[in-house]
Amino acid sequence: MHRPQIVYFVHDINDPAVNRRVAMLRAAGSDVVVAGFRRDDRVPTEVAGAAVVDLGRTRDNALKQRAMKVIANLVRPSKMLAASAGADVIIGRNLESLLLARRAQRTHGGARLVYECLDIHRTLLGGSLAARAIQRIEASLLGAIDLLIVSSPAFLRDHFAKRPTLRAPTLLVENKLLLLHTALPARCDPPPGPPWTIGWLGNLRCRRSFAELSALAAKSDGRVRILIAGRPSPAIFDDFEAMVAAAPHCRYIGPYTADDLPNLYAQCHFAWGIDYFEEGLNSRWLLPNKLYEAACFGTVPIALADVETGHWLERHGAGVLLDDTAPMAGQLSTLFETLDQPGYASLRAGVDDIPDPDLIADRGDCSALLEAIIGA
User: Fold this and answer.
1) Element (H or E) spanning 36, and its range?
2) CA 102 → CA 67, 92, 308, distances in Å?
3) What is the pLDDT of residues 103-139, one digit of tens each?
4) What is the C-alpha to C-alpha distance for residues 328 and 342, in angstroms, rounded to an integer?
């Protein structure tokens, strides 16, 4: 039986979400090559068992520099074209990668072109000359794709529904926790509170989140603690470790891997699910990885009520939902000043009642994804 040959163009080969997607495609029976950029100095030889083609180093929150790297690979495409020869499907993860994927597809011909959109950059909604130029590129590429994959229904409803050049079918693939070889994760049981620990995990790129959390911890006199793990964006934070060290009752433990998740969430009563990085735009629309991870381990998410994450939690009757039109500090202070163990147990029960299939992707999800990608 022919194993589908997939070339996956990505914005960051070291992104754990890229690892998860490659693992899904390989588990379903395809061969994958990952061609992409990286946001740090690590150059892996493989991602989830797939060979890697390094296309260069880019910087976080540096659109102009990333554009130059894309152009450099378009001008000298030999490396990426060699990697994509013989592909049945070429996938571009986010718009900058889709440009390269389209170039490879036009050269080789015959391959299906898939666009996987996990973020919508603010320039795709702006009115400047640069923004309009990027929007014209997006319009052209949308007209060429065979399938659009999104991680949140809000991307379809609030962005792509307004893009008339998009004629391809669409597929929603949420950022669920992938389990292929292990049993369902056990729900974590942190020590009874207070103190209550809030975990801020993942991509650390929101200065306002740090301000809100550190202020809450400082005012709580030890009743609330903040555990921070992940990779801070150097474009947002000059010296993140020093900032955390100066903040009372806050602790930063550095980057983590998927294997660290049980231990991390075992220390947390709550998971911070608020992100103001693209406030009113991408941050309003996305459904982040940590939403599913936290709920899988029984940690109570904290989210804004009137964003897609809040809507998802409201449908499931779970989480702490905050009013984004009211002062955040007052709402958080009120919550933790009055919270006791029975109150927390009630919040925890709401999370425990979320059905496992809404949180976890299994081999059936992998097969369904591959079938959609190859057009079966």
Assistant:
1) strand 31-38
2) 15, 8, 30
3) 999 998 889 999 999 888 777 777 788 888 889 999 9
4) 24
pLDDT tens sequence across 254-268? 998 888 999 999 999
Element (H, E) at 199: strand 196-204
The order of strands in the sheet holding 147-150 is 46-47, 50-57, 31-38, 5-10, 89-93, 112-117, 147-150, 170-172
> CA-to-CA distance for 155 and 119, rounded, in angstroms?
8
Percentage helix, strand, coil for the chain under 3-state DSSP, each rounded to 5: 40, 20, 40
What 3-state DSSP class applies to 31?
A: strand
The span from the CA of 323 to the CA of 333, in Å, is 14
Is residue 46 within 8 Å of 130, Cβ to Cβ? no
Asked if residues 189 and 174 have their Cβ atoms less than 8 Å apart, the reply is: no
Structure tokens at 172: 């929603």
- Short-list 68, 61, 64, 106, CA closest to 87: 106
- Which residues share a beta bridge with 302? 272, 320
Q: Which two tokens stand for residue 113?
A: 């072109």
